[in-house]
Amino acid sequence: MMVLTKALIQKSEENAVKNGGFSFSSLMSAAGKAAADIINQNFNASGKRVLVACGNGNNGGDGFVAAGRLKELGAEVDIILPMGAPRTENAAYYYSVLRGVNEVSEAENSYDIVIDAIFGIGLNRAVTGEIAEFIEKLNSLNALRAAIDIPSGVLCDSGYADGAVFCADLTVTFIALKPCFLLPEGSDYCGKTVVADIGVTPAGYEYLTIEKPEFKKRKHNSHKGNFGTALLICGSYGMAGAAVLAARGALRSGVGIVKSVICRDIYQGFTAAVPEAVCIPVKTSKSGSPDYTDEKIYTAVSSASAVLIGCGLGDTADTALILEKILNICKKPIIIDADGINALAKNINILRETKAPVIITPHPGEMARLCGVTVPQIERDRVGFARKISADYGCVTVLKGANTVVADKDGCVYFNTTGNPGMSKAGSGDVLAGITVSLVCQGFSPFEAAKAAVYLHGEAGDRAAEKRSERSMLASDLIEEL
């Protein structure tokens, strides 16, 4: 699905009018009616008391049309104008022809549904003062809440929400998703988001969302070698579980062979947990990580289709030395996760010297260390930092979090739309890393593997949440849903 910025949405509407298919008035009518119909489908508005809060711009005009349509659908509808009479021509027209709808001056606590049509995508500031107090009043009402286009107080392109923000249970937007629905601050206020088709063709896009990957049917005459060999350099004393989760995630995702470099100190527990993996036991360093001097680590690279390094490996000097040597000798795709990223942060320029395609999978804290900034800075510009790291170092970046961002070295950015807060538990990232290396081994390009992995990881999380709830689900549950 395409994701359009404010400028692209406005250009799309202008093109629709210029090409003669619409007028701006008919676009407002189509948007308002579509919003009302979707709100009715979700909230069953017939027979219920509905309050529509309309601003003085075009978003308010959408609200007037929606109010009239909800009246036709059997709702008892009031409107309230917290910013006064409409100031745009089309909004003023739909206000003037509104019939059978009451205009009130107070937002009483007697409504079943409250609809926000105060600010649309044009807002470019934090909402403060009297209108902020009004929005907070709407949020306090014991009612279902819907927003038309985007929740008032959220900035369209950045997702910033610094002032008062309408907290929607449902948002009906038009033409395409906007960045705010996928970025950290704004997405918390949108609730369920539905894109209404009002007949306007998008004038390009800024980002895309990840579609569910397709897999070719496997030939009947197959063997394990057809589906690749994943080399996992993961786990250390005290963090064997990370290696287990990564290996099981890789196997459950379809790779033919998993070879795991495992410290001798955790070998017994690992092989009991993952009997399907081929183990390469190596010396344990004093720090509890694999000893970087053990040559078995490096000789295993030659038979691998792709390498995963870092899950539970320990933030140690040995990890940093292993990573540096692997990047130096390996030409196969390398996925760097967790402690591999912590090691990389100490000398990220080694990415410029490797001949291997690289995927990095940082969470915001790890990304902050890579970029030399704070976590809040990363969260305020997830796309910008992901793009910059990928462009500067020629890698695929998977910046994890709600609506994980996947960027490549050419500046392409995709958002993931699967997953839920129940995945915010230790071990989830290890599973994702295992899925990613598995898909690379099966022939996906690094960029396609990264996108497919985050989608499947999130969908497995959604299925696990349905069965076990977001609170009780575990990272290992994701593996069983794959």
Q: How would you portray this structure in words?
A:
The chain contains 17 helices and 18 strands. The mean pLDDT is 97. It has 482 residues and is an alpha/beta fold. Helix 3 runs parallel beside helix 4, helix 7 packs parallel to helix 8 and helix 7 (240-252) packs across helix 15. The protein has helices spanning 6-18, 24-43, 58-72, 89-96, 129-140, 184-187, 240-252, 264-273, 296-299, 317-329, 339-345, 364-371, 375-380, 382-393, 428-441, 446-468, 475-481, and strands at 2-3, 49-54, 76-80, 102-104, 113-117, 144-148, 170-174, 192-196, 207-209, 229-233, 257-263, 278-282, 306-309, 334-336, 358-360, 396-399, 405-407, 413-415. It is elongated. It has an 11-stranded mixed sheet with strand order 1-9-18-17-16-15-14-13-10-11-12, with helices on both faces. Strands 4-3-2-5-6-7-8 form a 7-stranded parallel sheet, with helices on one face. Helix 6 links the parallel strand 7 and strand 8 (192-196).
Q: How many helices does DSSP assign?
A: 17
Distance between the termini: 23 Å
Mean pLDDT: 97
Strand order, sheet with most strands: 1-9-18-17-16-15-14-13-10-11-12
**Class from helix and strand fractions:** alpha/beta
Major β-sheet annotation: 11 strands, mixed
Percent in strands = 15-25%
Task: Give a brief rundown of this model.
It is built from 17 helices and 18 strands. With about 475 residues, the chain is an alpha/beta fold.
Task: Give the SSE layout.
Elements: E1 2-3, H1 6-18, H2 24-43, E2 49-54, H3 58-72, E3 76-80, H4 89-96, E4 102-104, E5 113-117, H5 129-140, E6 144-148, E7 170-174, H6 184-187, E8 192-196, E9 207-209, E10 229-233, H7 240-252, E11 257-263, H8 264-273, E12 278-282, H9 296-299, E13 306-309, H10 317-329, E14 334-336, H11 339-345, E15 358-360, H12 364-371, H13 375-380, H14 382-393, E16 396-399, E17 405-407, E18 413-415, H15 428-441, H16 446-468, H17 475-481
Parallel strand pairs: 2-3, 2-5, 3-4, 5-6, 6-7, 7-8, 9-18, 10-11, 10-13, 11-12, 13-14, 14-15, 15-16
Antiparallel strand pairs: 1-9, 16-17, 17-18
